[in-house]
Design brief:
This protein is α/β, with parallel strands linked by helices. It has 3 domains: 83 residues, SRP54, nucleotide-binding domain (Four Helix Bundle (Hemerythrin (Met), subunit A), Up-down Bundle), CATH 1.20.120; 195 residues, Rossmann fold (3-Layer(aba) Sandwich), CATH 3.40.50; 124 residues, 434 Repressor (Amino-terminal Domain). The protein contains 20 helices and 8 strands. Strands 3-2-4-1-5-6-7-8 form an 8-stranded mixed β-sheet, with helices on both faces. Helix 9 links the parallel strand 5 and strand 6. The protein is globular and about 70 Å long. The two termini are 49 Å apart. The C terminus is likely disordered.
């Protein structure tokens, strides 16, 4: 996401490189290129024009300090303006806690926007990170398959789903789900509603009826970011009828130019609250405008990367692992467990792009999200004794493992060599015995 926009903006800022000061002429030239970059990213024309006008006004009003180059100052102004364009502050969910009464979240959106999948992701997040006890309500009475999909997703995230197969009135189903939540002490009800392939009066009236009946605390409009300006237009029409409280942008991991994320706040004046970045149930996060501005300008997003790592960090497990490393007991079981922790953090390329400078370097490199599959296959083809004691892995055992994992002997040898090197390095780090730098050879 935003790769092309980042590249175009970087080229725009080069116009000011080498300039001694900011002038009306070089600012106009730079912002002309910035406006083109925004339009190419499918940003609304009026939004792009207002954005560049604001940047121009702020840039010309700045006194350039001797320690700050004009190009750097322009990047700072554009960064702050981008963050403001996308909402400025991070918007939280409004979930008032009342004893015996659940908080209600109503999901709205077109078919194919990822609404049902996101409902399950949100339930998982609320359960694991906020210690909530959510209930998913399947209120798409037009499509039995949608009810079944939500039921399956609910099982995946271990969250109960209220389903009335054969029901025809979604308002009644939603009300019954809320009563069910009261009886079972569920403190949040997430109501998944029907979507359509296009906006129509029947859809709008139905979801308005549900809203009026259940009086939700949050109405989240779920929109596919890959639809660009269509997403913004749809968001406006839904907002005119529902007056929703927040936006969810899904499929930000796809080939999207980012125009929806940059335009939607200005057009509907509602905050983007969450983004979805993949099919996995962990692939969603709160939307942080300033962090997104960092990523658009190629600055990475270290804060989000650290937060993702902390979510998977288990202090007790870390201490156990440290002791095993010190005693040289780190084995393939531990190695496999570490791979699973990394996978839980999300898409590998997306994680790498959060490191400043790395996103640009990886732009044309395809990182397969299944990159660990062959490693996992090799480890799982070992016997329990072999995983615990890698010293047993002689040539005949390695050949058997290669056949069992669908790899070749070279891949098995490479993994074992990498494992040995990793184990040695980890032992040095934990015992603080870092290797000395080798002496330079004499010529």
């Amino acid at each position: 996401m935003f790769e092309n926009l980042s590249e175009r903006l970087e080229r725009s800022f080069k116009i000011l490189k080498g300039e001694g000061r900011i002038t009306e002429i070089n600012v106009a030239e730079t912002l002309k290129d910035v406006r083109r970059a925004l339009l190419d990213a499918d940003v609304n024309y009026k939004v792009a024009k207002t954005f560049t006008d604001n940047v121009k006004q702020k840039a010309l009003g700045q006194n350039v300090l001797t320690a700050v180059k004009p190009g750097q100052l322009m990047v700072k102004i554009v960064h702050d303006e981008l963050a403001q364009l996308m909402g400025g502050e991070t918007a939280e969910l409004n979930l008032p806690g009342r004893i015996g009464e659940p908080s209600i979240i109503l999901m709205a959106g077109l078919n194919g926007s990822g609404k049902t999948t996101f409902s399950a992701k949100l339930a998982k997040m609320l359960k694991e990170k906020q210690a909530k006890k959510p209930l998913l309500a399947a209120c798409d009475t037009f499509r039995p398959a949608a009810m079944e999909q939500l039921r399956v997703l609910g099982e995946q995230v271990d969250v109960p789903v209220y389903v009335e197969m054969g029901a025809t009135n979604p308002v009644e189903v939603a009300l019954h789900a809320i009563n069910e939540a009261r009886q079972h002490a569920n403190d949040v009800v997430i109501v998944d509603t029907a979507g359509r392939l296009a906006i129509d009066e029947e859809l709008m009236q139905q979801i308005q009826d549900i809203r009026d009946a259940i009086n939700p605390h949050e109405i989240l409009f779920v929109v596919d970011a890959m639809t660009g300006q269509d997403a913004v237009n749809t968001a406006k029409e839904f907002n005119d009828r529902l007056n929703y409280t927040g936006v969810v942008l899904t499929k930000l991991d796809g080939d999207t130019r980012g125009g929806a994320a940059l335009s939607i706040r200005s057009v509907v004046d509602k905050p983007i609250k969450f983004v979805g970045t993949g099919e996995k149930m962990e692939a969603m996060s709160p939307f942080h405008p300033a962090r997104m501005a960092d990523r658009i300008l190629g600055m990475g997003d270290i804060v989000s990367l650290v937060e993702k790592a902390q979510e998977q960090y288990d202090e007790k497990e870390a201490r156990r692992l440290e002791q095993r490393i010190k005693k040289n007991q780190f084995d393939f079981n531990d190695f496999y467990a570490q791979i699973q922790q990394i996978k839980k953090m999300g898409n590998i390329k997306d994680l790498a792009s959060m490191i400043p400078g790395v996103g640009k370097a990886l732009k044309d490199i395809d990182i397969d999200d299944n990159a660990f599959k062959s490693i996992e296959a090799i480890i799982l083809s070992m016997t329990p004794k072999e995983r615990q004691n890698p010293a047993l892995l002689n040539t005949s055992r390695r050949m058997r493992i290669a056949k069992g994992s669908g790899t070749n002997i070279q891949e098995v040898n490479r993994l074992i060599k990498q494992f040995d090197q990793t184990r040695k390095m980890m032992k040095m780090v934990t015992s603080k015995q870092l290797p000395q730098m080798p002496k330079m050879p004499k010529f």
